[in-house]
Amino acid sequence: MKVYDLIIIGAGPAGLSAGIYAGRAMLDTVILEKGQDGGQILQTAEIDNYPGSGPEESGATLIDRMAAQVKKFGVEKIYDDVTAVSLDGDIKEIICQRETYRAKTVIIAGGASAKPIGCIGEDKFIGRGISHCATCDGPFFRNLEVFVIGGGDAALEEAMFLTKFAKKVTVVHRRRILRAAKSVQEKTFKNDKISFLYHTVVKEIKGEDLIESMILENVKDGSITEIKADPNDGTFGVFVFIGYDPSTQLYQGKLTLNEKGYIITDENMKTNLSGVYAAGDIREKSLRQVVTAAADGAIAAVQAGKYIEELESK
């Protein structure tokens, strides 16, 4: 059975970037993707913070160009769902629904998915008013009102960031006690543009092309409130920060994960297993952006190439 130099799991920005670098290095590489190229970034309607992005750049257009580069360098791409992995030894096995693939090295770039609110209308407005990334989408809500869903460090830190653009930021939290660090809470409380709605959950988000209103429920007394967009604005933003779920179920007990389930790597994307690397949102890191995912993928591919050279020189 064929043994590739490199198997890349996932065709998001990290996986595609790894594919570009591996292809240029003449590594015999295959990318395995269970769904559609791009991952979470496909939900982003506009991108203006990725270096070199065009005036009408979207997640889809950026991924299309990345995928075209991967194809240009002769990297094979197979759409199959990974069901099990065997990562020990010199030859790694990736077991998928249709076939088993073998390689000398593996880059895991399966990403992470943002936890949903779970309310009516959520799917309709993802990328059209609902965002999981203030850094990506905050500038699009300049002088508009925004709501931040969550009560942890990420929610409050992103709420503070959003005050640079929004005219008002309201943090919606299902409990009275916030989960964020006290130091983060104190900074937030001092910001005049930020207010809080406690004991509150989102039940429904409504509108035509853009968000026009939001139904909230008080979990203590069951009362219902409808928040409507300012008539002069026509819409508002909803930023959701209630956590992420890394796609690491297959690697539990095989790779070293942190307490939240992210793969731990060093600065060269190396995991605790030789010849196995992780890149992008699936690994433990401080910033999850397309630019850092692409950088991770490039580093991982270069390191995989060096590892193969060392194997072949033995």
Describe the protein's architecture and organization:
This protein is an alpha/beta fold. It folds into two domains: 3-114 and 244-313, FAD/NAD(P)-binding domain (3-Layer(bba) Sandwich); 122-240, 3-Layer(bba) Sandwich (FAD/NAD(P)-binding domain), CATH 3.50.50.60. The chain has seven helices and 17 strands. The strands form four sheets. Strands 1, 2, 3, 4, 5, 6 and 17 form a seven-stranded mixed beta sheet that branches. A five-stranded parallel beta sheet has the order 8-15-9-10-11, covered by helices on one side. Helix 5 (153-162) runs parallel beside helix 6 (182-189). The two termini are 23 Å apart. The model has no long low-confidence stretch (mean pLDDT 94). It comes from Sinanaerobacter chloroacetimidivorans. Residues 4-297 form the FAD/NAD(P)-binding domain. InterPro entries: FAD/NAD-bd_sf, FAD/NAD-binding_dom, Ferredoxin-NADP_redctase_2, Pyr_nucl-diS_OxRdtase_2_AS, Thioredox_Rdtase. This is Thioredoxin reductase. One of its GO terms (cellular component) is cytoplasm.
Provide the CATH top-level class of the largest domain: Alpha Beta
State the fourth-level CATH superfamily of the largest domain.
FAD/NAD(P)-binding domain
What is the helix tally? Answer: 7
Outline, from the CA principal axes?
Answer: elongated
Largest sheet: 7 strands, mixed
Question: Stretches where pLDDT falls below 50 for ≥5 residues?
Answer: none
At CATH level 3, the topology of the largest domain is: FAD/NAD(P)-binding domain
**Approximately how much beta-strand content do the residues carry?**
25-35%
Distance between the termini: 23 Å
Sketch the topology as an H/E string, one letter per element.
EHEHEEEEEHEHEHEHEEEEEEEH
Average pLDDT, all residues: 94
Which CATH architecture of the largest domain? 3-Layer(bba) Sandwich
Number of strands: 17
The number of domains is 2
Query: What structural category characterises the helix and strand content?
Result: alpha/beta
The amount of helix comes to 10-25%
Cα-atom radius of gyration:
21 Å
GO biological process, one term: removal of superoxide radicals
Catalytic activity: [thioredoxin]-dithiol + NADP(+) = [thioredoxin]-disulfide + NADPH + H(+)
InterPro entries: FAD/NAD-bd_sf (IPR036188), FAD/NAD-binding_dom (IPR023753), Ferredoxin-NADP_redctase_2 (IPR050097), Pyr_nucl-diS_OxRdtase_2_AS (IPR008255), Thioredox_Rdtase (IPR005982)
GO molecular function: thioredoxin-disulfide reductase (NADPH) activity
